[in-house]
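The records we work with from here on pair a chain with its fold. Here is one such record, which you should read through line by line:
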Amino acid sequence: MNTASDSFVYFDPRRDFEASLTILCDSLENLKSNPFFLKSAVIHAVLALQGACVCSLVRSDGTGAFEKRTERQIREYFDLQSQKAMCDAKGVQWILEDKDFPEERLASLSELLMRLPADLRVSIKGPTDNLNETARAVAFLKELRDDFVHFKTSTHLIHPKSTLNAIRCTVLLAQRIVAAQSNTSARTISFAEVEGLFKRALALLDEHPI
């Protein structure tokens, strides 16, 4: 995991996903003795789903999971670099202004879910009554996660069983996404590498610790 310098830790989509799923499992384990770990479980269940989407969507050039504007700017940047390289190869002077690599901004979870293959695609927008069980669970968990992450001053009354059921649906969706991309030539992560983490998370959820 470490780079050549021990002062840095290297993360990529696969490691980021594994870290989120591992922390989710640890949070579920700690729920047995401390119900306040439910907050951490919510946050990392959503992060794990987001990471699964990124692993499924990211392409060899690093694009695929960014905001549409970022995706366009990155394509323009690489096109410009290709044109510059051709000019250099032919001894032609480059007269256009060089551009810095654009700032990378990840697409929202709702956008990532809609970019997935048709059989995995999930829409979490719109009235709750119009969503299926998985979409309702993800939408509920994302809204809760957003409240936690953005430190809204309102207090929270959370129903443990319904929240854990939502986490289960989210984990199952992430599992399907990772398994599907693992069977493609462009896979970012092997399902076999994380199958144990999925099994651990689902087993802990079966225990309904609170």
